């Protein structure tokens, strides 16, 4: 790490010489003033004797006294105004000065590099970074099975320092396969605290596992593969051993709810340490079993009816099938973009917490009348709504959509997209009502609306939100 920057100090010999010279200067000045005082007294005595013997002796004597008083007062004022300031601090020689750290703003970077597993390799790396004025905030070491270690740093660098110069210095110190990306204030949390927080979130909600893995492993793509296809056949791609598989930039883990979880990170291989952490999170999820927060909110619609909004999961499968039967073919086709007969097959996937979060709206009698989905789609996030025909145009869809967007913001998503038909004016109006920047893409009658979440998050009109 860099040392605290100190103000350059003069050499010891120069300071001693300056102090000695200043003392001799004050002593010489006192001698001169004392001699001047004796001369002034002698001159005054001679003048006094001359004046007293003259015709106007007393008057001249008084005038001389007044002149002496005025001269003394002027000398006092002049001495105070031009007091002897201490001599300026001598400048240190250029070879002894400590260079000051670059002023201005700084940048946060995450850096990962591979070094030899031998004494002094990490010290050489830290010295090279300190030479550039780079401050090491955190450091993690990942041992490799074939020898060597992967060191992961959180760095604070001067704003004007290019990342290429940092990587060149690291290469010169023995690092290779160096990778850097921008970091933010969230990365300042130490690793044990961050891992414990991710474990807590996973324990509270089964839908958190994919998000926890993504935050644990950095920028990566996560796919949850179901054990069976929509046609009910076994999914060969979802076959993963209990202990998981690590293959350079890809790891495959067995999903406790069935199927497999595939994590991919191009150009940056996973380390055995990261693989062990990911397996620990999956094992925690398996031991706790299915779980979804059971909090709920009660909404009063403009006509006076009350609607309850809560999280939904696989336990709502039968109620969702019943709602499908009450929906018209047009409503189902606007939602699923395919044959209406296949709509029921999607429910197992949509209601699973592993693939996202689902909100359900139920009436006072407990009947399910609307579903809102926030689906993890690799690096992207999809939102979708299904409102029973009788309950459309009452504000239920807009309320569910606002809550889903708030969940996406909380999950750290950069954007969400909705796939619908250009004739679905209700969905278009609900997306526009969010007040977020929107992008539209139309292909063969299918409309894709993407909302960018870098704007102010959309909050519900309720005083509090449903838990994730």
UniProtKB/TrEMBL annotation:
<keyword id="KW-0808">Transferase</keyword>
<dbReference type="InterPro" id="IPR002912">
    <property type="entry name" value="ACT_dom"/>
</dbReference>
<feature type="transmembrane region" description="Helical">
    <location>
        <begin position="59"/>
        <end position="78"/>
    </location>
</feature>
<dbReference type="InterPro" id="IPR045865">
    <property type="entry name" value="ACT-like_dom_sf"/>
</dbReference>
<dbReference type="InterPro" id="IPR016181">
    <property type="entry name" value="Acyl_CoA_acyltransferase"/>
</dbReference>
<dbReference type="GO" id="GO:0016747">
    <property type="term" value="F:acyltransferase activity, transferring groups other than amino-acyl groups"/>
</dbReference>
<keyword id="KW-0812">Transmembrane</keyword>
<feature type="region of interest" description="Disordered">
    <location>
        <begin position="1"/>
        <end position="24"/>
    </location>
</feature>
<feature type="compositionally biased region" description="Basic residues">
    <location>
        <begin position="9"/>
        <end position="24"/>
    </location>
</feature>
<dbReference type="InterPro" id="IPR000182">
    <property type="entry name" value="GNAT_dom"/>
</dbReference>
<feature type="region of interest" description="Disordered">
    <location>
        <begin position="82"/>
        <end position="107"/>
    </location>
</feature>
<keyword id="KW-1133">Transmembrane helix</keyword>
<feature type="domain" description="N-acetyltransferase">
    <location>
        <begin position="307"/>
        <end position="463"/>
    </location>
</feature>
<keyword id="KW-0472">Membrane</keyword>
<feature type="domain" description="ACT">
    <location>
        <begin position="110"/>
        <end position="197"/>
    </location>
</feature>
<dbReference type="Pfam" id="PF00583">
    <property type="entry name" value="Acetyltransf_1"/>
</dbReference>
<protein>
    <submittedName>
        <fullName>GNAT family N-acetyltransferase</fullName>
    </submittedName>
</protein>
């Amino acid at each position: 790490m860099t040392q605290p920057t100190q103000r350059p100090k003069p050499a010891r010999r120069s300071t001693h010489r300056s102090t000695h010279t200043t003392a001799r200067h004050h002593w010489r000045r006192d001698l001169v003033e004392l001699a001047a005082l004796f001369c002034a007294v002698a001159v005054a005595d001679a003048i006094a004797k001359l004046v007293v013997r003259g015709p106007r002796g007393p008057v001249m004597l008084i005038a001389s006294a007044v002149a002496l008083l005025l001269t003394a007062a002027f000398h006092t004022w002049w001495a105070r105004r031009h007091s002897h300031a201490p001599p300026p601090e001598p400048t240190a020689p250029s070879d002894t000065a400590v260079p000051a750290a670059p002023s201005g703003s700084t940048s946060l970077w995450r850096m990962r590099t591979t070094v030899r597993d031998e004494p002094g390799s990490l010290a050489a790396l830290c010295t090279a970074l300190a030479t550039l004025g780079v401050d090491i905030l955190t450091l993690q070491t990942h041992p490799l099975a074939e020898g060597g270690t992967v060191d992961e740093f959180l760095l604070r660098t001067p704003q004007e320092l290019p990342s290429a110069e940092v990587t060149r210095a690291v290469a010169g110190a023995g690092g290779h396969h160096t990778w850097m990306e921008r970091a933010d204030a969230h990365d300042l949390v130490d690793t044990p605290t961050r891992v414990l927080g991710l474990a807590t979130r996973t324990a509270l909600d089964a839908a958190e596992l994919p998000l926890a893995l993504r935050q644990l492993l950095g920028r990566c793509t996560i796919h949850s593969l179901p054990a069976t296809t929509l046609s009910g056949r076994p999914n060969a791609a979802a076959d993963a051993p209990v202990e998981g598989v690590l293959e350079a930039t890809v790891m495959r883990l067995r999903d406790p709810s069935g199927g497999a979880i595939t994590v991919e990170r191009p150009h940056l291989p996973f380390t055995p340490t990261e693989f062990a952490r990911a397996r620990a999170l999956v094992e925690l999820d398996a031991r706790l079993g299915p779980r979804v927060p059971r909090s709920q909110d009660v909404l009063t619609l403009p006509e006076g009816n009350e609607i309850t909004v809560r999280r939904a999961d696989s336990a709502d499968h039968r109620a969702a099938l019943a709602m499908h039967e009450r929906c018209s073919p047009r409503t189902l086709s606007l939602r699923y973009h395919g044959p209406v007969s296949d709509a029921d097959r999607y429910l197992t996937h949509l209601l699973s917490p592993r693939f996202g979060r689902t909100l359900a709206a139920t009436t006072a009698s407990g009947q399910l009348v609307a579903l809102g989905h926030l689906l993890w789609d690799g690096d992207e996030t999809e939102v979708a709504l299904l409102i029973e025909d009788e309950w459309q145009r009452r504000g239920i869809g807009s309320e569910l959509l606002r809550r889903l967007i708030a969940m996406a913001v909380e999950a750290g998503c950069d954007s969400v997209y909705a796939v619908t038909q250009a004739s679905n004016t209700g969905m278009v109006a609900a997306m526009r009502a969010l007040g977020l920047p929107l992008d539209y893409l139309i292909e063969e009658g299918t409309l894709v609306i993407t909302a960018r979440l870098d704007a102010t998050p959309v909050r519900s009109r309720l005083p509090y939100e449903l838990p994730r």
